[in-house]
Structures are given as structure tokens and as C-alpha cells.
UniProtKB/TrEMBL annotation:
E.C. number(s) listed in UniProt: 3.1.1.-
Function summary: Hydrolyzes acetyl esters in homogalacturonan regions of pectin. In type I primary cell wall, galacturonic acid residues of pectin can be acetylated at the O-2 and O-3 positions. Decreasing the degree of acetylation of pectin gels in vitro alters their physical properties.
Localization: Secreted, Cell wall
Keyword set, alphabetical order: Cell wall, Cell wall biogenesis/degradation, Hydrolase, Secreted, Signal
Family according to the record: Belongs to the pectinacetylesterase family.
MF (Gene Ontology): pectin acetylesterase activity
GO biological processes: cell wall organization
Major localization class: secreted
Keyword Hydrolase belongs to the record: yes
Protein name: Pectin acetylesterase
């Protein structure tokens, strides 16, 4: 009797500690929009992160591989050392898309459309960190961040002369791979293509092409972080994301570079959605995604255009403010995600980490990738889950139970208070998607130890 009571108590504690949330720790200003900028930048950490300089790809212009505004594309490379010197990690930068002439023209005046505006140095954190204690499996690899300046997940190939727009994502991808091969990647004995958000979608689209760069003897895998963009119905019954993707695909002629295995039975826009691609990727692929992806909640499911009266504003900005029917809407979304990856997860070479968090991009931030309190599934943080899968130490197919059962989440909370954003002034950063983002975290404190017990006891109480 006492044992059962104790288990009940623990179960209850798990439940409650999952709901209680939020002491905001950090505020970053960001134009979320289809530019979703600083969502991925890391919170200040005690250790100074490694800063890595930008290299422009000099040979790219002659190949027509240029950013939206015609400037050279670029990347940041930190060379590997010791046992990692023949291993290569390529991280494709994310940052939304542009789907109209107007917002592509605006993008030319940002770092997402022109190397003139790119940071000359970027911090290498999370999966890019050079410290074993922050990045246990990849810290001494050659690590590359390829900058994103085409607006179509490195996959478009067209132009608009009237607006002086270059849509050369596919050419940028190819020119970058050629450059890195010449810098030693052709001798790689193992390689991982990763990317987050729009870069996570790109890592799915380019995964098999990446594998084909190497001989069969090279161990090649791909990681898509927050790239599982779902063709979902929004809160007003519309198809916000599909409409936007449709613009990206037609404007930038993305269909030229999408797989025929999809195009032979679906329209090009559908073939830009990972749900129609992942099962046919031949190379081992790991999908890391929050089940309630914060960007999709904000920009695809409940964007202002689908919620003109702002009924979702509170809930969207902080999931703790959602009522039961709103939570149910998110649960349906989670179910659609799980449905979309059913065939994919049947393949033993693939990996999964789908945690029930309101997060976005968990591999680039140190706090979510590998830290004392980083998110866990089956008691394992993301860095070790990805490492175990890459090195075949253990199969990893981790799917969280539904919200609110996970109290290890680092949730992103949005603040819609437009007065907090001083930077929104371009056509793409106006009212619709300008938000300040607050980083918050579910309260864990003393619940940590209870949580550990819960991991072991929940299956017993549920079965
Ligand atoms: C939850 O909020 C939405 C939006 O305000 C509203 O339409 C719905 O009726 C509410 N549901 C419940 C169960 O209160």
C-alpha cells in the first residue's frame, strides 16, 4: 500500500513539475518572421565560447553560387585535431525563408541574404563547441558552419533580374562542398551533415547528395534539428506554412533540386515538406525535434494572420497560459508529427529524439545540447543520444510522452510586446512576426531527483 502511494505521489510530482514553468532568464530581440533570427543564439555561458572567423568562398562567383544580392557565400571552419582530424561536421545555418520578391529584396539587406551583413565571427557552441565537456563526441572534429544567404534552404536555382535577386542556394551548397573537399574533407573517414530549422530542412534535402561525395568506406550520416516542418492546418483552418512554402518553391524553382521519388507522385510544394522526404532518404538520418516546435507554433499554427483577434496570443507566447482546448490543438499537432515519421522510424539506421518541449534548435545552444540540466529522454541528453546513434554505440529512437510529462525542457517563450523590439522596421519585420523572445525553463530544482525516479517508475504505474 505504502509503495503504491509513494508511486502515486511521484507520478503526481512528475505531472505538476512539468506544468509549473518559467522564470524568464534572458531576453533577446529578434525578428522572428520567416527570419527567425536569434532563436538559435545561445544564452550567455560562463565559459567564453570559441569565436571562429568567416571565410568567403572566392571561387563561388564564377560558378554562379552567390547570395541573394550577388555577394560571395561564406562559412566558418574550425579545424579538427587528434583523433578527430579526419572527421567532418557540416552545420547548415538556418533562418527562415523568403517567399516573395518583396521579402527577398528585404532579405538582401540582412545577413540572411548578403555576406556584406554577415558577422565576421560566430561563437561555436553546442554541437560546434571545441570543448569535450560541452560536446563530448564532436569537439575535436573539423567543424563547419555554412552561412545561409539564399532564402530557400540551400535548394533554389533561379533569378529575378528586375529585382536583382539571385536564387542560388543549390549552387552555394555545391560550391561550399567543393571548397571543403579541397580543404581536406575528401579524406574524411567520417562525416555528419547537420543543420537547424531551415538548415535542418536543408540537411534532409541534401543528405543523400552529401553521402555521394564520399567513397563507401566513409561513415556518413545526417542530423536534422528542428527541420520537421509539418504541412499542418493552422488555428483558423488555413494552410499558412504550405502557402509560404509554395511561394519559396515557385519563386526559387526549388523543384529542380527535389528528389524525383517524391515529385513523381506529389506536387513540388509537398516535396519541400520533410514528411514526404524522410522515408526515402537512403543515408542514416537523425531527426531531433521538439514535439511542440516553438517556431511552428508561432509562425505556422497560430500566426497573427490566422488569429486576427489575438485569441492565441497568450497561449502562443507562453504555453502555461494555454487552456485545455489549445493544449489539445498542440497534442493533435504532436500526433501528426509522430504519424509523419512512422515509416522513417521503422528503419534501424535512423535515429529520433522527439521531446515534448516548446523549443526550437536544440543542437546549437549549449544549454540544450549538453549541460548539467539539459533536456533528457530516457535519462540521456541530446549530445549523447546523437553520439550513441552516430557511432552505433546504441540505437536511439526516443519519443517523449505527451505534454506535460517532461520537466527537463528548456522552453522558448515569446513576448508579443512589440514595444520591446526596437529593431523591427523592414517590410518583413513589421507587425506580423516581430517578437521579442524570452528564454525560460521549466522549474526543476528539487524535482530533478524525483524526475530520475519517475523515469523508472512511470512505466510501472502506467502498465
Ligand atoms: C480556449 O481559448 C480559445 C481562444 O480564446 C476559445 O475559443 C476556447 O473556447 C477556449 N476553450 C476552453 C475550453 O476554455
Amino acid at each position: 500500500m505504502k509503495l503504491i502511494f509513494a508511486i502515486r505521489l511521484l507520478y503526481y510530482s512528475c505531472f505538476v513539475s512539468g506544468i509549473v514553468s518559467s522564470g524568464s532568464e534572458r531576453r533577446t530581440q529578434t525578428v522572428l518572421s520567416y527570419l527567425e533570427n536569434d532563436v538559435v543564439s545561445s544564452p550567455p555561458s560562463s565559459a567564453k565560447p570559441l569565436m571562429v572567423g568567416l571565410t568567403l568562398i572566392q571561387g563561388a562567383a564564377s560558378k554562379g553560387a552567390v547570395c541573394l544580392d550577388g555577394t560571395l557565400p561564406g562559412y566558418h571552419l574550425h579545424p579538427g585535431s587528434g583523433s578527430g582530424s579526419s572527421s567532418w561536421l557540416i552545420q547548415l545555418e538556418g533562418g527562415g525563408w523568403c517567399n516573395t520578391i518583396r521579402n527577398c529584396v528585404y532579405r538582401k539587406t540582412t545577413r540572411r541574404g548578403s555576406s556584406n551583413y554577415m558577422e565576421k565571427q560566430l561563437p561555436f557552441t553546442g554541437i560546434l563547441s571545441n570543448k569535450a565537456e560541452e560536446n563530448p563526441d564532436f569537439f575535436n572534429w573539423n567543424r563547419v558552419k555554412l552561412r545561409y544567404c539564399d532564402g530557400a534552404s540551400f535548394s533554389g536555382d533561379s533569378q529575378n533580374e528586375a529585382a536583382q535577386l539571385n536564387f542560388r542556394g543549390q549552387k552555394i551548397w555545391l560550391a561550399a562542398m567543393e571548397e571543403l573537399m579541397s580543404k581536406g574533407m575528401k579524406k574524411a573517414n567520417q562525416a555528419l551533415l547537420s543543420g537547424c530549422s531551415a538548415g535542418g530542412l536543408a540537411s534532409i534535402i541534401h543528405c543523400d547528395e552529401f553521402q555521394e561525395l564520399f567513397p563507401q568506406s566513409t561513415k556518413v550520416k545526417c542530423l536534422s534539428d528542428a527541420g520537421l516542418f509539418l504541412d499542418a492546418v493552422d488555428v483558423s483552418g488555413g494552410h499558412t506554412l504550405r502557402n509560404m512554402f509554395g511561394g519559396v518553391v515557385s519563386l526559387q524553382e526549388v523543384q529542380k533540386n527535389l528528389p524525383s521519388t517524391c515529385l513523381n507522385h506529389l506536387d513540388p510544394t509537398s516535396c519541400f515538406f520533410p514528411q514526404n522526404l524522410v522515408a526515402n532518404v537512403k543515408t542514416p538520418l537523425f531527426l531531433l525535434n521538439a514535439a511542440y516546435d516553438a517556431w511552428q507554433v508561432q509562425a505556422s499554427l497560430a500566426p497573427p494572420s490566422a488569429d486576427p483577434n489575438g485569441l492565441w496570443s497568450d497561449c502562443k507566447s507562453n504555453h502555461a497560459h494555454c487552456n485545455s482546448s489549445q493544449i489539445q490543438f498542440f497534442q493533435d499537432f504532436r500526433n501528426q508529427i509522430l504519424n509523419a515519421i512512422k515509416d522513417f522510424s521503422g528503419s534501424s539506421q535512423n535515429g529520433l529524439f522527439i521531446n515534448s518541449c516548446f523549443a526550437h534548435c536544440q543542437s546549437e545552444r549549449q544549454d540544450t545540447w549538453f549541460a548539467d540540466d539539459s533536456p533528457l529522454l530516457r535519462n540521456k541528453p541530446i549530445a549523447l543520444s546523437v553520439g550513441d546513434w552516430f557511432f552505433d554505440r546504441e540505437g536511439v529512437k526516443a519519443i517523449d510522452c505527451a505534454y506535460p510529462c517532461d520537466n527537463t525542457c528548456h522552453n522558448l517563450v515569446l513576448n508579443d510586446d512589440s514595444s520591446a523590439t526596437g529593431s523591427g522596421s523592414g517590410p518583413d519585420s513589421g507587425s506580423e512576426f516581430t517578437s521579442a523572445m524570452i528564454y525560460s525553463q521549466s522549474i526543476r530544482l528539487t524535482f530533478t531527483h524525483i524526475y530520475m525516479l519517475c523515469i523508472f517508475l512511470l512505466p510501472i504505474t502506467c502498465s
